[in-house]
Amino acid sequence: MLNGFLNVFKDKSKSSFEVVDSIKKMFKDELGADIKIGHLGTLDPCAVGVLPIALGKATRLCEFIENKDKKYLFELTLGFKTTTGDQEGDVLDVQTIPHISDERIISVCSDLIGCYFQKVPSYSASKVEGKRFYELARANQKVPERYKEVNIKQLKFIKRNKNSLWFEVLCSFGTYIRTLCEDIAVKLGTIGTMTFLLRETSGDFHLKDSISLEKLRNLIMRREYFKVIIPVNKMLSHIPVVVLNYENAKKFVAGQEVWIKKDFDNFEILRIFCMSGTFLGLAEKSKGEKKIWKPNKVIII
Which of 44, 69, 90, 204 is catalytic? Predict the structure, then answer.
C-alpha cells in the first residue's frame, strides 16, 4: 500500500479537490489501486503553487504537518473590491486611487507584522452549523462575521506596476491572503483585490521540488511514482523519536499507555517505533504522570 506525501504543483485549471480526484483516478486507472488521498491546506481555485498531498495512512497525519508556516507571492490590484476578494467574484465597489508612495507601502508592511485578528472571508471553507461559508454566500444567505488570529511573520513589498502591487509574505497556517490584500488596501487609504497568488512553500514542501500532475501521471504509467513519494517520517522529523521494546510496542499497538523513561517535558507528541524499525504511530502525554504516554494515532507503516 502507498503511504506518504506528494509535493504537487496546482495550476489554475483545477481546484484543490479536483487535484485530489485526479490523482486518485491516476492510481486507480493505471495501478488498479484504490488509495485514500487528501490534501494539506486548500489553495483557492484561482491560486497556483505548492499543494501537499497525503497518500494512504499518511492522511491520518495531516494535522501534524499542515499547521506549519506558508510563504506566498501575491499581487494586490488597487481601486476595486469584489464579493470573493479575488478576480472570480462580482465587483462591489470601484474607487479612485490616491497617490501612494513606496515609503508608505513599506510602512504599511511593517505595521502588519505580528499577530492580528483577520476577518474570515464570506467565500471560504469555514463552517457554521454544518454549512460552509461559501455555500451560504452563493445562496445569498447571511454569512456570520467571524475573526481568527493569524501571524504575519514577514511581509515584503516587491514591486509595483501601475495599480498593482506585488508582495511576498511568510505567515501562519490559516492566513487568508485575500483578506490580507483588503487590509493592506484599507491601510493605504483605498480598496483592493487579490489578482494573483502563488504558494511558494507550505511547511517543508517547497515550490522548487513540486511536480505537475502531468509529470506524476507519466511516473505512474512507468511505475516510477515511488521516486516522488516522500516518506511519512521525513515529514514528521520535527517530532522526537522513541523506540519501544517488544512488550511496550505490543501494548501501544493495543491502545494502552506506556511508560517512557526519558523526559520530554517540552513536547506534546512523540513518534513511536518498535525495535525492528517499524513506525507504530504517535503518542501523546497522559494526564497525571509525565512519563506516561498514550496512543494518539496507531499507524503501522
Answer: 44
22's enclosing H/E stretch is helix 16-31
Residues 166 and 83 in one domain: yes
Residue 115 belongs to domain with CATH number:
3.30.2350.10
pTM, whole model, 2 decimals?
0.91
* Grid coordinates belonging to 254: 493495543
Contact in structure between 29 and 50 (CB atoms under 8 Å): no
Number of helical H runs and strand E runs in the chain: 7, 18
- For 34-55, what is each residue's pLDDT tens digit? 899 999 988 988 999 999 999 9
For the record, the C-alpha cell of 13 comes out as 485549471
Q: Closest Cα partner for 86 from 195, 197, 198, 180?
A: 195
Total domains in the fold of the chain: 3
Is residue 152 within a helix (H) or strand (E), and if so which, with residue range? strand 147-161
Active site residue 34: no
- Of the chain, the percentage scoring pLDDT greater than 90 comes to 79
What CATH code is carried by the domain that includes residue 294? Answer: 2.30.130.10
